[in-house]
């Protein structure tokens, strides 16, 4: 049986019915539907969207080009928070600083200490492969670090 497309009003009503606005002591509005990697997700127009972004946009928020939507300190450990008052557009570097502050950096970015990152950046004459072997990470991790795509908070 084919699925009938939802109107914008039906989508919004269904969306908000899966947000719990009352159970969290920090004021987080927790998504009760499907999650992926801790983030609430919802499907619209055949695409997956993170629910915190949908919530922010439905509430009239605007995400300027080049910025990402970041959770506040109230939401540490609660990637499924949809409270638009807990969300702020920031640069990816600011988001990385927030994750570093909150101890929520993705595991791959936390393999090296700040001191090791500084040592690697100061290394002269060693190949990326050599540095990777020396520090126990992949060559591409060294390349990303040296090109400032990772560890941007250091």
Defining key terms:
154 residues; three-stranded antiparallel β-sheet; 7 strands; 2 domains; alpha+beta; two-stranded antiparallel sheet; 6 helices; Homing Intron 3 (I-Ppo) Encoded Endonuclease, Chain A
Largest sheet composition: 3 strands, antiparallel
Question: What is the CA-based Rg, rounded?
Answer: 20 Å
CATH architecture of the largest domain: Alpha-Beta Complex
Q: Compute the number of structural domains.
A: 2
The succession of helices and strands, N to C, reads HEEEEEHEEHHHH
Determine the CATH topology of the largest domain.
Homing Intron 3 (I-Ppo) Encoded Endonuclease, Chain A
Low-confidence stretches: none
Write down the overall geometry: elongated
How would you describe the oligomerization state of the chains in this entry?
Answer: single chain
| Count of helical stretches | 6
CATH class of the largest domain, anyone?
Alpha Beta
Structural class: alpha+beta
Identify the strand order in the major beta sheet. 3-4-5
**Overall average residue pLDDT:** 89
Explain what this protein looks like in three dimensions.
The chain is of the alpha+beta class and 154 residues long. The protein has two domains: 1-104, Homing Intron 3 (I-Ppo) Encoded Endonuclease, Chain A (Alpha-Beta Complex), CATH 3.90.75; 106-154. The chain has six helices and seven strands. The strands form three sheets. The chain has a three-stranded antiparallel β-sheet with strand order 3-4-5. It has a two-stranded antiparallel ribbon with strand order 1-2. A two-stranded antiparallel sheet has the order 6-7. A hairpin with a 2-residue loop joins strand 3 and strand 4. Helix 5 packs across helix 6 (139-146). It is elongated, with a radius of gyration of 20 Å. The protein starts with 7 loop residues before the first helix and ends in an 8-residue tail after the last helix. The model has no long low-confidence stretch (mean pLDDT 89).
């Amino acid at each position: 049986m084919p699925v009938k497309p939802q109107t914008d009003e039906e989508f919004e009503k269904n969306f908000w019915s899966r947000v719990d606005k009352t159970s969290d002591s920090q004021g987080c509005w927790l998504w009760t539907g499907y999650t992926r990697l801790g983030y609430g997700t919802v499907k619209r127009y055949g695409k997956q969207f993170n629910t915190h972004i949908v919530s922010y946009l439905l509430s009239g928020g605007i995400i300027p080009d080049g910025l990402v939507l970041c959770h506040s300190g109230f939401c540490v450990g609660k990637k499924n928070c949809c409270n638009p008052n807990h969300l702020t557009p920031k640069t990816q570097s600011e988001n990385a600083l927030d994750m570093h502050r909150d101890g929520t950096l993705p595991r791959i970015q936390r393999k090296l200490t700040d001191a090791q990152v500084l040592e690697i950046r100061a290394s002269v004459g060693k190949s990326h492969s050599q540095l990777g072997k020396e520090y126990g990470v992949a060559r591409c991790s060294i390349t990303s670090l040296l090109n400032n795509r990772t560890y941007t908070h250091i």
